[in-house]
Design goal:
By secondary structure, the protein is of the alpha/beta class.
Length: about 425
Amino acid sequence: MGRYKLLIKNLRQVVQVCSNNEALMCGENQQQIVITDASCVAVNNDGNIFGIGGNDCFNDEDFEQVIDGSGCCLLPGLIDAHTHPVWAGDRVIEFSMKLAGCSYMQIHQAGGGIYFTVEHTKNASEDELYQSFVERLHNMIKHGTTLVECKSGYGLDLETELKMLRVIERARNDKNIKIDISSTYCGAHAVPKGKTAEEATYDIINEQIPRIKDEIEAGRLHVDNIDVFCEKGVYDCSQTRRILEAGRKIGLNINFHGDELHQTGSAELGAEMKAHAVSHLEEISKEGIKEMAKSQTVAVILPTTAYILRLPHPPVRSMIQAGVPVALGSDFNPNAYCLSMPTTMHMACVLLGMNLNEALVASTINAAAALGKSSTHGSIEVDKRANLLLVQAERWEHLVYRLSSHDEVVKMVICGGDISYSKIK
């Protein structure tokens, strides 16, 4: 048996993304990716990269498994920085409603949208939620995702939010599901029916967060982030601040929805609170862009949502030019059913004006930064986790270029040195 876990050799390209332990990349640097002439990447028994070099640098017999990467490119595994993947209920009818001209808030106020999903998620068993969640995770993996942020938020009450967080925890601990998970408590995803936003804020701060703290301290849950939907008609900036601060006090990273439908000052709030990330930002102000650049708060852009809701596109070019670090997320949810980061990257390039390098950075190192994991994820560097994507193409750009043809180019997905998906029989 070999001394080490895995060797990938004979590679055409090794796309490191960055090579100097950068925490994130912004401004002009966001398009300056590192592509090395190395042909091998070696992984130790801890699932971390320990060597990057030529074929003559390593001996096959030292490794438990050797993969021939001839004609292939190796990239960091993709990172999906924003998803809502635990839910029950079919909302396909809303797609027709949107096509007929109904807005997100009109559907929301009519009892559809989040409220429809909340009702069905409350009524679903934990096992039912887990089964559908696992299927979604496997589909994400097939598209190259190796780290995904997963939110609760379709409970809005303590018991259902805990049920969703337990489902996420169960998947995190399932050794048959080879994907890394960043868990987010999003109890403030909407205002529950029968409560005011102020009453809901009180419940979240005084009932839900203390119970989540107990579950974390008991080792039953591992929760990484706290999220709030800061929006007109949902939670205002004052309520959002109080909820986020309560989450931070129990050790959660701040990572929230903001400035999606209205200019609320969410970007400025996120910058002031030194949030890891603010998502959406379709209606971000010029001052918000300036402040996020100063604080280096990551802007998590969600092209699928603006596309399906026909919203104005977020001003991504202005953000990048101002020095805001930009990441991408699929925003997978019943409203925007997209499990594919390559599709998200394609949309970011065509619709939002990002170039290919910027989209790759946004889906790797900057997405890792949004989740507080860029020291271990998001690039191919020695001592980082071996989350890798093997692409069957002459150039890595084919991953984004071939719209809806990712099954042709994604040859293998590796998480922590273990193969999570492979077309090689």
